[in-house]
Amino acid sequence: MDMINPTVVDLSRFQFALTALYHFMFVPLTLGLTFMLAAMETVYVVTGRKIYKDMVLFWGKLFSINFALGVATGITMEFEFGTNWSMYSRFFGDMFGTPLAIEGLMAFFMESTFVGLMFFGWDRLSKQAHLAVTYLVALGSNLSALWILIANAGMNVPHGAHFDPDTMRLQFDSFVKLIFSPDAQAKFVHTSVAGYVSAALLVMGVSAFYLLRGQHRQFAARSFRMAALFGIISTVAVITLGDVLGREDYMEQPTKIAAIEGLWHTSKPPYEPWILAALPDDTRQENHFEIGVPFVLTPLITHDFNTPIRGMHELEDAAAPRIESGIAAVSALRRYQETHQQADLDAFKAHEADLGFGFLATRHAPNQDVTAIPADALQSVVEQTKPDILPNVFVTFWSFRIMVFLALYFFALFAISAYLSLKNKLERNKLILKACMWSIPLPILATEFGWITAEAGRQPWTVFNTLPTFLSASTHSTSYMVFSLAGFALLYSIFIAAELYLMFKFARLGPEAHDAPHSDDAYAAHCAVVATPHASGQ
Question: pLDDT, tens digit, for every residue of 115-163?
């Protein structure tokens, strides 16, 4: 494998991070709003009350704006694998391309087809048939997420594949192992439910805006209550599945877990504290200060009180023999490609499990060729490579904490909001209404930091322990990457501006069917009856 200009690699990484984070501003709302629309329409079909149909129509309008822009940002992002990451695509294309193809053929087309029926089929389909269409839209959107996350899980734990020394590729072995990867299943549910949290807070926030202004009160109160209940269930699921995903990372990606916890040395159970805040220093490999809660980290990660968690210094030391073995694997692979002798293939097979660590050592080898490392310089190259196995600890540590702290905030906000809504005390609590309104973007921010944790924590690998990132990029010039990055940043910024303009515009316009004063008066009378002890028989 040829080395790539480090600047080109950095620019390629920055461009993909930028486009992925832009795209994921739209994805959570798409995932969550579809099931909220299905829940609202279910109530409409069961009760026959028109207000629930009006809720589907209005929130469906905001969903359609978000869906259209999400599609536009997602399609272009997939082409980046071929344009900017050609070495990765060649090496991992069989594994990565299969779920992406299924996502396009089955989930995406299914979702897009039924979206049209959902919006234009109200007068052409029966209530039950239209409800089925709405559920199919929800199913399609979540299936899209499933196949994307299966592909991503293969990068973290490449189940169902083996390296072929003749083709220099990971060969696809088992479709079943790929789709039933524990990492894929946990990541899919965690990510999807995070989208439900985003949708719930959008509906709550916009409804709170109407209640604060005294507009569309019946519509807003019902939407708020459904969203609050939907949100509290979703937040509990997010936190629970986050624990499952963390357990999977502990088993498969110990460097990521050590970085997330800011753990430089192996823990001493059961006292080891969970660090609430710290200032990790990647250069000096230490934390400048720590604020932690004792006796929490060990059971949180290992689910017992006795198992130590390996720290980053010990993980570096454990990597040393794997790096040396990987250098032997790369050397044997080079010889086999030249000679095709069985002895060289056997030598490669003996060290194949550590091949990725040999690739990782190439940038510290003379002329970036591990076969040219003199025997007396081998240990020096190993020592230089050891720190490379660690991700950026500062970024991984803090992105995880921002995500977790926001999740806990959402749980509290949903719980309080649901309680006040069920007790018909919501409109008297202006502070909660304002908190809901101003918190609309926070779930999107939490999911973005969740992805930063997952992807930054996997570094320095595109395929964990197998293919380093610096060997994965295309051989572009720096000027090309600068031009491409600027173009994508401009294009995606226009998409974001269009999304915000349209969402604000239609949210401010509100549901037209509930502008009539008598609707609000009837709702106010209902609230007065419920809130009066004498009238309610209390």
Answer: 888 888 888 889 999 999 999 988 888 888 888 888 888 888 888 888 8
Helix (H) or strand (E) holding 528: helix 517-531
Rg of the chain taking only CA atoms, in angstroms:
26
Residue 22 one-letter amino acid: Y
143 within 8 A of 104, measured Cβ to Cβ: no
| Spatial contact of 451 and 80, defined as CB atoms under 8 Å apart | no
Give the closest residue to 193 by CA, choosing from 236, 154, 253.
236
Contacts of residue 161, Cβ cutoff 8 Å, sequence gap at least 6: 94, 95, 154, 170, 171, 172, 173, 178
Q: Are 74 and 104 in contact (CB under 8 A)?
A: no
Helix (H, G, I), strand (E, B) or coil at 365: coil
Give the Cα separation of 216 and 204 in Å (integer): 13
Retrieve residue 239's tokens.
């936190």
Name the phi and psi angles at 171, rounded to 5.
Answer: -90, 135
Cα three-residue angle 14-15-21, rounded to 5 degrees: 85
Return the bridge partners of 280, or none: 287
Whole-angstrom distance, CA of residue 310 vs CA of residue 352: 24
Positive or negative CA dihedral for 496, 502, 505, 511?
Answer: negative
Q: Quote the pTM value.
A: 0.87
- In 3-state terms, what secondary structure has residue 22? helix
Helical packing angle, 50-83 and 6-23, nearest 10°? 170
Q: Which token pair is 425?
A: 């005390």
- Report how far residue 23's alpha carbon sits from residue 41's, in angstroms, rounded to the nearest whole number: 28
According to DSSP, residue 107 is labeled: I
